[in-house]
Write a structure and sequence with these properties.
Elements (H helix, E strand, L loop, with lengths): L9 E10 L10 H11 L3 E6 L2 E2 L16 E2 L4 H7 L3 E3 L9 H14 L3 E3 L1 E2 L2 H5 L2 E5 L2 E9 L20 E2 L4 E7 L1 H14 L21 E5 L9 E6 L4 E6 L1 H15 L4 E7 L12 H12 L4 E5 L7 E4 L2 E4 L4 E4 L9 H6 L8 H8 L15 E10 L2 E11 L13 E2 L2 H15 L5 E5 L2 E5 L4
Parallel strand pairs: 1-2, 1-19, 2-5, 3-4, 5-6, 9-15, 11-13, 15-16, 16-18
Antiparallel strand pairs: 1-20, 7-10, 8-9, 11-14, 12-13, 17-18, 20-21, 21-22, 21-24, 23-24
């Protein structure tokens, strides 16, 4: 006899951002039900749950990840009905309702039987692999975010101290390489304003130490900033860079390595909004993180966070999706909005959520409402055979660009011009990463190396 999981075969369906705030079961368009059937054909169906499931039991945090994202917990059943069976909870909305909201969200996901990873009562829980058994083998998911406020980061537990609820945040420090003229001007400003009157030491969040004629540090932590130092390095051009916190990187690499010894399949997912030279490109620290976790044993890396598709790469015969775009975008039908967000848009205490969404979108004439690429994305189906990457097939989905907020935001299979333009966008963004995408009508395939 042979176990089914010994075949080394599995089919993964991967989606990006799911900002759900409404029911999914009532709808019956053929293109919608066809997408549901497709998802159910896969063994693993992943999404980034960029929302908190709760019934307003907890107080909102002072500053959210944008909209205070909330969904009625009963709609977890609708996600399961659609096909999703595994979610990431580490993202910039993890802390919209504070520490209590982190735990409430986890309780509801557990109650409805949705597998999840990325948050916890402490950092050990937040960064631990989640395991899910399937007929094709045991699947592990490690979930992290590089994008979010430091206050959302889960805290380590000690033998004599409780941990802090939060998400598996991988910290990164932005720094700027600048030319001589800019460097000298910044140094003059720092001197006059007293920003560099002392050399900072190694603080709890201070990644950079020392100050030389090649490096300038602005100590902004004392003025209330989350990142304590702005680092400028003398170079030949003006560029922004990111450096990963080595401690956070090592923690996640260790978690992936542990999962690789405990499961048949390892998925690593991370939420990242920071871009490269343009926002449509992956940042250098996203590439470094993705390569590191594959080196540690991950079979697939799934990025999300930019609300648009970024390119994909095949690294050591393992796929990296640097950002899958929106799978559901219902962030303008959340039923309540805290006063802190109302005030940010100059609205009064008696203003309604509809007032807030109108103000933010300039009455449906601005923002994400006007950006077509936010409402069209790709869903990859990744097939392994005999433990080797065998096929990546890409399906385009349409979220209803320019439809009323009561209708838009729910995915259906795209066809015609929408499908071709969506697939073409991913093809063009993948080429610089060495990946060739072949479009075949309303779907596309990734051409895999045969060596």
């Amino acid at each position: 006899m042979q176990y089914e999981s010994e075949s080394g075969d599995i089919l993964l369906a991967l989606t990006g951002e799911t900002l759900i705030s409404r029911a999914l079961k009532p709808f019956r368009e053929p293109e919608y039900l066809a997408l549901r059937d497709l998802l159910h054909s896969a063994d693993v169906r992943f999404t980034n749950a960029e929302v908190l499931f709760h019934n307003y039991e907890d107080s909102p945090a002072y500053r959210p990840g944008g909209t205070y994202m909330r969904c009625d917990p009963r709609y977890i059943e609708d996600l399961l009905w659609l096909g999703i069976n595994m979610v990431c909870t580490a993202n910039n909305h993890s802390f919209d309702f504070g520490e209590a909201g982190v735990l409430t969200n986890r309780r509801y996901l557990d109650q409805y039987g949705m597998a999840h990873a990325g948050t916890g009562a402490n950092m050990s829980e937040a960064s631990a692999p989640m395991y899910m058994d399937t007929p094709k083998g045991r699947v592990a998911l490690i979930a992290a975010t590089t994008f979010g406020m430091l206050s959302s980061r889960a805290g380590e537990q000690r033998r004599d101290f409780k941990g802090r609820p939060g998400c598996n945040l991988i910290r990164s420090e932005p720094y700027w390489v600048v030319d001589r003229e800019t460097f000298d001007a910044l140094k003059l400003v720092a001197s006059k304003l007293g920003w560099s009157d002392k050399t900072p030491g190694q603080g709890s969040e201070g990644f950079w130490t020392g100050q030389t004629d090649q490096v300038l540090l602005f100590d902004r932590g004392r003025y209330g900033g989350e990142l304590p130092f702005a680092r400028f390095v003398l170079g030949k051009a003006c560029e922004r860079h990111f450096a990963l916190d080595e401690r956070d990187l090592e923690r996640n690499v260790r978690s992936v390595g542990d999962a690789a010894r405990m499961a048949d399949w390892v998925l690593f997912t991370f939420h990242t909004n920071e871009g490269g030279k343009t926002h449509a490109e992956p940042s250098e620290h996203a590439i470094a993180l993705a390569h590191a976790v594959i080196d540690a044993g991950a079979h697939v890396v799934i990025g999300h966070g930019s609300h648009q598709d970024r390119g994909m790469e095949i690294y050591k015969k393992r796929p990296i999706f640097y950002s899958l775009g929106d799978f559901m975008l219902q962030n303008d039908t959340v039923e309540r909005m805290p006063q802190d967000n109302m005030v940010r848009w100059n609205l009064g205490w008696d203003s309604t959520p509809a007032d807030f969404y109108d103000a933010r979108s300039k009455n449906e004439t601005g923002g994400m409402m006007m950006e077509r690429f936010r409402w069209e994305s790709v869903v990859p189906f990744v097939r392994f055979s005999g433990k080797e990457l065998a096929e990546i097939k890409l399906y385009a989905v349409d979220l209803g660009f320019r439809r009323p907020r009561s209708q838009r935001g729910r995915p259906v299979l795209a066809s015609g011009d929408v499908a071709r333009s969506t697939l073409q966008r991913l093809k063009e963004r993948s080429q610089p990463l060495g990946t060739d995408v072949q479009i075949n009508g309303d779907t596309a395939s990734v051409i895999l190396a045969t060596d």
